[in-house]
Amino acid sequence: MSEHQRLYPVDASLAASAWVDADRYRELYRQSVEDPDTFWREQAKRLDWDRFPDTIKNTSFASRNVDIRWFEDGELNVAYNCLDRHLERRGDQPAIIWEGDDPDQHKIITYRELHQRVSQLANALSALGIGKGDTVTLYMPMVPEAAMAMLACARIGAVHSVVFGGFSPDALAGRIVDSRSRVVITADESVRGGKQVPLKDNVDAALTREGTDVVETVLVVKRTSGEIEWQDGRDRWFDEVVDAASSECPAVAMNAEDPLFILYTSGSTGTPKGLKHTSGGYLLYAALTHETVFDYHPGDVYWCAADVGWITGHSYIVYGPLANGATTLMFEGVPTYPDHGRIGKIVDKHNVAILYTSPTAIRALMAHGEHIMDSSQRDSLKVLGTVGEPINPEAWEWFYRVVGNSRCPIMDTWWQTETGGHMITPLPGATDLKPGCATQPFFGVQPAVVDNDGHRLEGATDGNLVILDSWPGQARSIWNNHERFVQTYFSTYEGVYFTGDGCRRDEQGDYWITGRIDDVLNVSGHRMGTAEIESSLVAHESVAEAAVVGYPHDIKGQGIYVYVTLNDDVEPTDELKQALKQWVRKDIGPIATPDFIQWAPGMPKTRSGKIMRRILRKIAANETDGLGDTSTLADPSVVEDLIENRHIKS
Ligand code: PRX
């Protein structure tokens, strides 16, 4: 049997101790789809409500009326659920273990301390005029203040919009303007891998852009004490403002459907969209998935190695774990600093039981050889998880054997910014594992596979992944643009949610996610729209036209391959290639930096002028034998030229 078909059956002792075993999974899954009201009414009891909901599910996926509501007459406060309700039993338990970039720095924050700081910050925000429904932009390093800021917003009903600290001033400005934030919370600098990133300088630059004069206050966390500019009246030190505020701050009861946060993500077209997540359904879904998918038990130290700037950080560093009263580890640095054994050393240092990371991080470590794990034992580990991109079986096996000492099941969790929480995933005590396979739907999730015309495909098959009905963690809309929400997710196939992913369902009914089937790239688990990178490139004075595609990359999963047609009078030089890479890096952020640029005197276009990306993808991947149907090309010689001058010859 090849490695790829190996099966890792559920460990019997884990099945006995886990929250959910195989029988329980089947029983609960059936109930969750046949009688969602009963299932979710029961689950809603996990949360503390100011008003327990009578109405559970009220959702429509019909494209003329996409309307998604869960627990719509319920009232609760998300911060209360993540903090106050734990104080009596767990006040002195660590809520956050913060591990600094520098291995000599760590901090432990108990639930009581977190509650106090969040209450003070919430009062400080109120004093700055922020209240229910107002938005606050967070552009933060991985420091506890990031979680505090999210929870402080939630406490007073404000809506946070976290922007990943690796995005450029322009990208930040666009998000501030779209969300109309009057307050921005940032830090002087962030620190990753021993290097400083000038967050406050980036905010200063962003706030010179058109439309950002909505911002009245910038709160600045002092992280490095690095040199920064200061604008009196606008800029305030985070600690000074928070220290001065009272720690008595009642949590505001919010409707379950009031927005909790906006999170921007890339799609196939246009600018990034601000997905709107609401309070009750999102929190319940994050909490339930966190507990069951990682089989979290009280006392476990749990570590999700994502950044709070992404949905994974929202649901599985902050909201899910804290709603469950867990101890969540927050890591400021990178897995390769100061050496490649860092992940294992952190696991040993803090007795981590659950480790949730990305295939890219695993592949990056794998490239350095097994000995990098010799500096740690990792005996505390019980469950492993991956997210963000398909994991190749080799990386899965390495994670299992080398990091997990062949003892810990791996939860390959498929989900999206739009889904709020895990959608297709194994459960540690219930699911037999296949390396590279996301396996089975979570409770309440009804996946289906359709062909390009939307016809349902049954049995073992390949096709487009859709979800037939709503689940509580689902995004409700796009901020200020419900029409775009409907258009993007509910118009490709009528009456179902379209994920944008392709998948294969095998004979056992297990799902294998094969990756995006639209013009979205997934580079190191970071999602990017090809259109965003293209519009950045064509804004350069030398560029006439640009087309961006992904190509297979050993470590990053996908790399960024760019075809550029220059203006007539411009010389195609290597210096210009470097300049264009820097241009995109500066315009969007380092994660969008092209790996390869190929000069393209012409693009392969249809007679109606549409670029045939399918062909560009094949050339980038060096699959030039199978270009498929090229009969609709306006000028076939263009393709020959591109193949001839392909950047990476093998
Ligand atoms: O293509 C899928 C891939 O990541 C996309 C979602 O990206 P984003 O919204 O940034 O959220 C990432 C974190 C949840 C999906 O459409 N993806 C995510 N998890 C997996 C995955 N692909 C394969 N296997 C996974 N486990």
TrEMBL record:
Post-translational modifications: Acetylated. Deacetylation by the SIR2-homolog deacetylase activates the enzyme.
Domain named Acetyl-coenzyme A synthetase N-terminal: residues: 25-82
Annotated positions binding CoA: R192, G193, G194, K195, T312, S524, R585
Start and end residues of each AMP-binding enzyme C-terminal domain: 532-610
UniProt enzyme class: ligase
Cofactor(s) named in the record: Mg(2+)
Record keyword Coiled coil present: no
Binding site for Mg(2+): V538, H540, V543
InterPro entries, sorted: Ac_CoA_lig, ACAS_N, AMP-bd_C, AMP-bd_C_sf, AMP-binding_CS, AMP-dep_synth/lig_dom, ANL_N_sf
One Pfam family named in its UniProt record: AMP-binding
Residues with PTM N6-acetyllysine: K610
Binding, ATP: G388, E389, P390, D412, T413, W414, W415, Q416, T417, D501, R516, R527
Residue ranges crossing the lipid bilayer per the database entry: none
Organism phylogeny: Bacteria, Pseudomonadati, Pseudomonadota, Gammaproteobacteria, Oceanospirillales
Domain AMP-dependent synthetase/ligase: 84-467
Similarity comment: Belongs to the ATP-dependent AMP-binding enzyme family.
Protein name: Acetyl-coenzyme A synthetase
Catalytic reaction annotation: acetate + ATP + CoA = acetyl-CoA + AMP + diphosphate
Known function: Catalyzes the conversion of acetate into acetyl-CoA (AcCoA), an essential intermediate at the junction of anabolic and catabolic pathways. AcsA undergoes a two-step reaction. In the first half reaction, AcsA combines acetate with ATP to form acetyl-adenylate (AcAMP) intermediate. In the second half reaction, it can then transfer the acetyl group from AcAMP to the sulfhydryl group of CoA, forming the product AcCoA.
EC number in record: 6.2.1.1
UniProt KW keywords: Acetylation, ATP-binding, Ligase, Magnesium, Metal-binding, Nucleotide-binding
Keyword Disulfide bond: no
